[in-house]
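[recover] target loaded
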């Protein structure tokens, strides 16, 4: 998968992404979680910010926020959302790896949720985590989220979720072939199933063991592995999600 193909996928998804994830409900959940995780106000970077739900939640809690995403369409929606919620947020169109070095050591908190790291191409995963480490000030904290691809690789469950909104159904599902994982979003209207769109992108199923080695190698300390943002223990055989919390 090329970087451009991945960008095109999220550019296309931007038109319905907020409806698919229930933006308002997610905003409330994230705001409450971040209040507990980051009680002291500081500078925060949201890597792979999408339409801005995490950036806005951080800003509502009093942090100074930079939202980063390679999709221009996602960022345009994020800017609109930040205005709707009356939050002043800076946005940068960039991959994590391409964030300028002028941002190094600037942030007290760096987050990357929503399975963003599964979009990082295989040859750049080490340098991408290194870039995230470099952005943090000494003592800064990071949290990343990725699905538990150890469990996914065993179960080979194709359906990720089926969710409705007022007018549409959204089916998120995988294709597994030749060692590759493709992630798909099928959207169709409730009143006319032939009115549909299907978009696809390759994802990279990074597993806990590899991520642990990279986090240790780049210099993170106090690395913790959770199954949710409340800090529940991660079980590689049963947990759907992997959250990695670490300190620089």
């Amino acid at each position: 998968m090329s970087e451009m193909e991945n960008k095109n996928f999220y550019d296309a998804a931007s038109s319905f992404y907020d409806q698919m994830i229930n933006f308002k409900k997610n905003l409330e959940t994230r705001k409450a979680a971040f209040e507990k995780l980051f009680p002291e106000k500081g500078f925060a970077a949201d890597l792979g910010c999408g339409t801005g739900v995490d950036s806005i939640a951080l800003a509502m809690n009093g942090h100074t926020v930079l939202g980063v995403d390679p999709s221009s369409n996602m960022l345009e929606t994020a800017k609109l959302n930040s205005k709707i919620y009356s939050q002043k947020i800076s946005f940068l169109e960039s991959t994590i790896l391409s964030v300028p070095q002028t941002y190094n050591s600037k942030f007290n908190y760096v987050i990357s949720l929503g399975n963003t790291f599964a979009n990082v191409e295989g040859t750049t995963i080490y340098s991408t985590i290194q870039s995230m480490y470099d952005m943090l000030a000494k003592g800064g904290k990071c949290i990343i989220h990725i699905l538990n691809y150890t469990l996914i690789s065993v179960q080979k469950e194709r359906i990720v979720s089926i969710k409705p909104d007022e007018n549409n159904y959204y089916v998120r599902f995988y294709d597994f072939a030749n060692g590759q994982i493709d992630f798909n979003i099928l959207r169709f209207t409730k009143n006319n199933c032939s009115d549909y769109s299907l978009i696809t992108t390759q994802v990279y199923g990074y597993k806990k063991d590899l991520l642990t080695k990279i986090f240790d190698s780049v210099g993170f300390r106090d690395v913790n592995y959770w199954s949710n943002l409340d800090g529940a223990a991660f079980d590689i055989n049963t947990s759907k999600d992997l959250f990695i919390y670490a300190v620089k």
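[recover] notes: The chain has a mean pLDDT of 96.
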